[in-house]
Amino acid sequence: MGQYFENDENLAHEDLRISFELLGEKYLLKSDSGVFSKDGLDDGSRLLLETIAKTDLGNEILDLGCGVGPLGLILAHLDPSRHVVLADVNDRALECCRQNAAALGVSEQVEIVHSDVYLNIDKKFSTIVTNPPIRAGKKVTYAMYAGAVDHLLEGGKLILVIRKKQGAESAEAYLKTLFPKVERLAQKKGFRVLSAHA
Q1: Are the C-beta atoms of 34 and 44 separated by less than 8 Å?
Q2: I want to staple 33 with a disulfide (CB 3.0 to 4.6 A). Which of 8, 14, 58, 133 is the partner?
Q3: Model's pTM, two decimal places?
């Protein structure tokens, strides 16, 4: 069976919908088999959005490993001044992301890019957000953290959510070797939201 961080063309499609309420608004997003958290908004993404969605993230945002797009699309939806690049290696997730952008009315604000980590990302951002693909392994997730250094504008930040039992302590320690300032913005249900400042 394919993983959400791979492209498995042989996997049968499912026409799924994710319905949830967040920050007083209701959302309905298209999903499919073979994508991350295909049946709903995961707890980590919810905590990340609740923590940062209405804060100042600047106008240039990258959602790295975007899946079907809940992080980046909702950030765009909540502030029309934001331009969001959503990147993932999973083509199926990106197709859902395109449809979700249209349904949310944010297609003009977003750019959806197929990219293996930063391979097809050639600009800098005020904020990079990610709910990193832990199952892809440290080689991938740590490349996401390290690559952020060269893809952030001066004063920009990398904001991520990670579960304590899935390596939050070691990830936080690694971030401190890359960035001058790392802080915990929130903690709930075993998840931590970390912010690393360039």
Answers
A1: no
A2: 14
A3: 0.94
